[in-house]
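Q: Sequence in, structure out?
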Amino acid sequence: MEDVEGLRGRIADGTATITIDELRVEDLDDIGWSGSPTRLRNVAEQLARMPSGDVEYFVLRADGTSIAKAGVDYTKERGAATIWQVATRFEFEGLGLATRLFEHAETRAQARGLSRLRLGVEVENDRARSLYEHLGFVPIGESIDEWEAETLDGAACLYRAICIEMAKDL
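A: Exactly. Output:
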């Protein structure tokens, strides 16, 4: 990849070519910035669900470089699309790229005739929560979520988080 500052500048001034495509297994190496090896194995598991139509997984690229990703699960709540595993490469945060992914997910959900988007955000993740509220999501409750993670030394562990559940009617 070319220098980050140059690409960030082109994204900011609107001259970068932005595309959103389905994430594929062969793209996993390109999104290593989005999480630990355990997280990437989970993404691969989710990609295996795509042919059934239960999930979609998207990658946003700027001038061909993978910058952000998000999954959408259509099985968690009847009539809703649940957005999860959203990540933007930290050098490119604050440029509206996650917003583009959300707009894409919303369009896909509407094409399926769904009437609601859902997501969960960790209680202490104020930055993400602020973005979601800006995009029209409202808090509807709290939940406890757990997922496989890794300690700093690479040992497997179970991560547990209190999440604010949020929804947006379409």
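The mean pLDDT is 94.
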